[in-house]
Design a protein that fits this description.
By secondary structure, the chain is α/β, with parallel strands linked by helices. The protein has a single domain, classed as Alpha/Beta hydrolase fold, catalytic domain (Rossmann fold), CATH 3.40.50. It contains ten helices and eight strands.
């Protein structure tokens, strides 16, 4: 059973965030709403060394542990349904990774409806090309929600580039949005207090920008999985992404990809980012695993 904190968080999200995505009209209104600044909060700046850069007109932040050299690297793609900017919840998670010795590179990709996936992929390629030489140890490609779907889609394109690019050593996907069409019939049985299919379909169309939403760059669940690095999946049973995480686990295993799925019973969408007991436990475990990669221990 989930903790009291998770149940309270679910009730709060149902009464607040969910309402903004219950209809296509509300989703469109949210898309054009003013965004908060993506800049890291002052507390994070005091605790870690932060470098702000730019690539192709978009921002890139690099977060390093203060007072010591990082021994592993993470490129972190934030969630927000492709229409929401990075939040304090994301930055807290980034801080936890840095505390464990990771250099965390956070690309601030453009959001729908102004930008689409056609802008995101070249931007991410540019970020990797620019930072490859400065990424110590093994590197993990990580993302949550929409950022998790983007991470998996990008990993598929990186694999196809082969030796021309430095491949990630591992993928960590937190409640990834794997299918823009949300076609899995098992989704209907999920009591997600936060996410609503009708609103997500609307913002998904904006992110697709007229392209086929089942294209693997948009819905990487339908892409080729063989040849990817190991995948760590995280989801909750009250999480709209959970059924597709199960599908991805099964398809990845069938393709010979090492894959693990951690499920929080009663857990919500992106549980590791939430300020609840299950979230803090999951975040600590993920940070420990990423920064305790065998290659990292040898560096």
């Amino acid at each position: 059973m989930s903790s009291i904190g998770t149940r309270v968080a679910g009730a709060y999200l149902r009464a607040t965030a969910r309402r903004r995505m219950t209809t296509p009209e509300r989703a469109r209104a949210r898309m054009i709403a003013e965004q908060a600044s993506p800049a890291p909060p002052a507390r994070l700046r005091r605790r870690h060394r932060i470098t702000e850069g730019e690539c192709g007109g978009f921002g890139v932040y690099t977060v390093d542990p203060r007072g010591r050299a990082p021994h592993c690297s993470v490129i972190y793609l934030h969630g927000g349904a492709y229409i929401g900017e990075i939040t304090a919840h994301h930055w807290r998670f980034v801080a936890r990774l840095a505390e464990r010795g990771a250099r965390v590179i956070v690309p601030i990709y453009g959001l729908a409806p102004r930008w689409t996936h056609r802008d995101a992929y070249p931007f991410l390629d540019g970020v990797l090309d620019r930072h490859t030489a400065d990424m110590p140890g093994p590197w993990t490609l990580m993302g949550d929600s929409a950022g998790g779907g983007l991470a998996l889609g990008w990993a598929q394109t990186l694999r196809d580039r082969g030796a021309d690019v430095r491949q990630p050593d591992r993928l960590v996907l937190l409640s990834p949005w794997l299918d823009l069409t949300i076609a899995n019939p098992e989704v209907a049985g999920i009591d997600d207090p936060w996410l609503v299919r009708d609103g997500l379909l609307e913002v998904g169309r904006a992110w697709a920008g007229g392209d086929d939403p089942t294209d693997p760059r948009l819905s990487p669940l339908f892409g080729e999985l063989a040849g990817l690095p190991g995948i760590d999946l995280h989801a909750g049973t009250r999480d709209l992404s959970y059924p597709d995480c199960v599908l991805l686990r099964d398809r990845a295993a069938a393709a010979g990809v090492p894959v693990g799925l951690t499920v929080v019973d009663g857990g919500l969408h992106v549980t590791p980012l939430l300020p609840v007991r299950e979230g803090r436990t999951a975040a600590a475990q993920i940070a420990g695993q990423v920064c305790a990669h065998p290659a990292a221990r040898q560096s």
